[in-house]
Design goal:
With 377 residues, the protein is of the alpha+beta class. Helix content is 41%, strand content 17%. The strands form two sheets. Strands 1-4-5-9-8-7-6 form a seven-stranded mixed β-sheet, with helices on both faces. Strands 2-3 form a two-stranded antiparallel ribbon. The chain binds phenylalanine.
């Protein structure tokens, strides 16, 4: 079948139509080519093309028929052409509207199908992270000290030299400052005092005693900073839990008993503890606590013979520093030196975690490698 435009672009005269019957068959031809076209499958954009082809104001088939056939028709054929055109127009308009409605509803169905939520499909499983091992060890230590009446306090990581050093009985000239030299902050001009990243959690001993009267029993978990070059056992940032117990009648036995309780709770009841003399400016006497090697049972010998690789045959592993609070410290916080006694300790968390979980490089704590993190869910 020819496209109707072939004929509708010409006048009746040019088409050789002179009789009514010819008019009828001409319209029948147009109607049947419309019927064929309108029965095709449409999507919206093709339907629009189809509509414009037939109903377009300028070059639509019906406008052409009006212009070329009706307006130019000889008077005797005009009524017939007019009537046939009206009939055709009604049929075309009805059909095109019908198709529009059916496209609309099928597209709606598609959209609904696309957006339908299938509740039976498995969901998207997003991996949930876990607590970092350091956080887990903090928690274990906090739980142990909670069970014997300690509470947690936290303090600033940016400190003044007064709290980090002076009030802890470490004056300006003291050589221990060399070991603990740290990061000083660049300050705006006119700042009244220097600021530094705390080298230990001990400043919180002072801040706590400034704010509370005895009895004091606190632990202080937190980050500390030192100007250490990184290697397997050093990092410029690491973690400590400070402990402080001060009252009117705390003895050295309370001190060692508390530490022993903690160490057994943390490593298991089979371990033993011992302490050796040490030195800290803010404790007197000062000690260093060791734990019997949890890997070789404190024998120094590996299970299969030979020296234990963890304690290097020493049978003991150094744990952390501690001591009875030096009375000089009480004078900085206006405690009555004569009536007060107490003990303090500073546990290196990274070191403790490395011993407990057989980790041989402190750097893994800071690298965020999921292959490491996943081992401690
Ligand atoms: N602050 C000390 C350090 O970081 C540890 C310590 C704390 C020692 C409390 C004695 C008492 O090395």
């Amino acid at each position: 079948m020819q496209a109707p435009q072939e004929k509708t672009s010409k006048s009746l005269q040019e088409l050789g139509v002179t009789q009514r019957s010819q008019v009828d068959s001409l319209f029948a031809e147009v109607q049947s080519s419309f019927d064929i076209e309108s029965s095709k499958e449409f999507i919206e954009i093709l339907w629009k093309e189809f509509r414009d082809e037939w109903l377009g104001r300028k070059s639509g088939v019906l406008s052409q028929i009006t212009d070329n056939w009706l307006k130019l028709a000889p008077p005797e054929l005009k009524p017939a052409v007019g009537a046939a055109l009206n009939k055709l127009r009604a049929a075309v308009e009805t059909k095109i509207e019908e198709r529009r409605l059916s496209i609309e509803s099928s597209e709606e169905k598609w959209a609904l199908a696309r957006e339908r939520i299938d509740l039976s499909l498995p969901g998207v499983v997003r991996p949930i992270g876990s607590h970092h091992l350091i956080r887990q060890v903090f928690q274990q230590i906090e739980d142990i000290f909670f069970s014997i009446g300690f509470s947690v306090v936290e303090g600033p990581e940016i400190e003044t030299p007064y709290y980090n050093f002076e009030a802890l009985n470490i004056p300006d000239f003291h050589p221990v400052r060399d070991d603990m030299d740290t990061f000083y902050l660049d300050l705006p001009k006119g700042a009244t005092q220097p600021l530094l990243l705390r080298t230990h959690t001990s400043p919180m001993q002072i801040r706590t005693m400034e704010n509370r009267q005895p009895p004091v029993r606190v632990i202080v978990p937190g980050k500390v900073y030192r100007r250490d070059n990184p290697d397997a056992t050093h990092s410029f940032i690491f973690h400590q839990v400070e402990g402080l117990a001060v009252d009117t009648d705390i003895s050295f036995c309370d001190f060692t008993g508390t530490i022993e309780y903690f160490v057994k709770q943390f490593f298991g009841p089979a371990v033993k503890t011992r302490f050796r003399p040490s030195y800290f400016p803010f404790t007197e006497p000062s000690v260093e606590f060791d734990v019997s090697c949890p890997f070789c049972g404190g024998s120094g010998t590996a299970a299969g013979g030979g020296t234990c690789s963890k304690c290097k045959g020493a049978a003991w592993i150094e744990l952390f520093g501690a001591g009875m609070v030096d009375t000089a410290v009480y004078s900085y916080v206006n405690y009555e030196q004569k009536k007060i006694t107490g003990f303090a300790f500073g546990i290196g968390i990274d070191r403790l975690a490395m011993i407990k979980y057989s980790i041989d490089d402190i750097q893994v704590f800071f690298q965020n490698d999921v292959r490491f993190l996943r081992q401690f869910p």
